[in-house]
Amino acid sequence: MTEPDAFSPVETARRLVREARTAALATLARRTGHPFGSMVSVACEPDGTPILLMSTLAAHSRNLAEDPRASLLYVDPAAPDPQRGARLTVVGRVEKIAAPADAARRYLARLPEAALYAGFADFAFFRLVVEDAHLVAGFGRAMRVRGEDLLLAIDEGATLPAAEADLLARLDADRPRVAAWAARLGAPAGEPHLVGLDPEGMDLMIASDESRTYLRIVLPQSSVDPATFEATLRHWEESVPLQ
Fold first, then answer.
1. 189-206 pLDDT tens trace
2. Residue 240: which residues within 8 A CB-CB, separation 6 or more?
3. Closest Cα to residue 75, out of 8, 145, 140, 12?
4. CB atoms within 10 A of CB 120
5. How far apart are CA 209 and CA 188, in angstroms?
6. Where in 118-240 does DSSP place strands (E)?
7. What are phi and psi of 83, to 5 degrees?
8. What residue spans define the domains of the chain?
9. Which of 6, 143, 191, 227 has its CA 20 to 30 A from that of 112?
10. What pTM does this model have?
11. Domain covering 9-150, topology
């Protein structure tokens, strides 16, 4: 996970969600009520709401069918010592996404291997409706992050979310430019791809034969429409030097 210049609990928590590939899902076991942990692959909606693709036959899905309360634990995958790295527990209730087209597009952009089974009859897309969160950012740095602060507030009149897919495809097609973004972030070796954008920034995936890394570009100001977003992106490009 790339750290902001000055520590911000909200910014750190948002980055953990945006840069994660997997998380630990905790549900309540149907028969005993015990905590039940599972590893899940994760993406998120433009505001940061977690997206899950799960088989309804899985034990955790059967648990959620009876009690939707759950949590997701995100851990900084880049931290050499997990005890010193940042981790975030997000608490809420899991619900099935009734119209999953946008969620599926965002999820499969980040996790293209999931396309092999996303269309199976027993698989469906779900979201964790965020209620609260708890951030541990290393020794002695534990704090609550309110659910409404973790999620990005997107103006109801914003046109950028509806334009995301087209803008994403156009920006990602400019391969030298995407490579320059990755260089500005000090990305590891690999093929960079733009896999998501929202009013506050963009998500890059750096893919290689050995690994896949996700990096967050935080833009200097929030945008409500594509034109403002592209102008803000150009400002970021001019202000952040190549590494």
1. 999 999 999 999 999 999
2. 184
3. 12
4. 11
5. 12
6. 123-136, 142-146, 191-198, 201-207, 212-218
7. -70, -25
8. 9-150, 160-239
9. 227
10. 0.92
11. Pnp Oxidase; Chain A (2.30.110)
